[in-house]
Description:
Number of strands: 0
Structural class: mainly alpha
Helix content: over 70%
Order of helices and strands: HHHHHHHHHHHHH
Amino acid sequence: MIKKLLQLIVLLTAMLAGAILMYVFAIASLMLVHACTFDRAMVYLSQAGGVRFLQALQTVFLFVLPVFLMLRIFKQDSCQYLSLRKVPVNKLLLAMLSILLMVPLMNVIISWNEQMHLPQSWASIEAWMRRQEMAATQLTELMMSDVSWRGLVLNLLVMALMTAFAEECFFRGTLQTMLKTETDKMPHLAIWVTAFIFSAIHLQFYGFFPRLLMGAWLGYLLCWTGSLWVPVAAHAFNNAMVVFSYYALDKQWIPENFGETIGTGNTWYLAVVSALSMLVLALHLSDSQFSFKQFFSKRS
């Protein structure tokens, strides 16, 4: 317990230092490469390319480097600790398929989450939450505003591949591992606490519950398959769908709000199919780790 607490302190300290170094590195590198002033560098960081540059640095300085620094300090084997094990391709494909299957169910939860309101006495808190949500949306749309082929490739690299690997290393690979006990065959508490932190840290409160469930699903994928590459694949595929949908919408390949209403309104039955499909997939993926009885034993 003491060791895990010390690991957590080192990890959080490294994250704080990484946040500071991220901006120092970003500004210094822009001023050096472009031979520009501090003010010009700040202007660049407020544009699409600059925001994407910061996003790439964030994956490294806030998530990847703190994790590997902590593992180095405590002399942990990175591959073993993070569960960076080889996994059959079919499990990677099933993980990505699960992201498609959950779309109708997630749309229902997203719709419900967006309609939530706090009590009148908490009006100021709700206003702050909506401002945070709007700011996050605007930031995403700014990154997606580069609709060239180059922009698409860079967004897929940064927002899908780099972000998925970095966040899964930090949350599922490290934080979830820290929170579980040695005797936990299926660490439900660690999975859900990690998913809660994963959702909360995004500061998008009107997408909190969908992201909470997504985080939990990624946590179970790690436990069922024993490899971090499986939730990385699912996470990357989810983010890639978002990136490509923005690109396809700009090119008018798909109608506006394409896919966002599937499972709601007259297509409610698709949400039921989605939920049942996810259950079947969960049972299939978990079969190699524990039985149907074990899957539900701790829930009863």
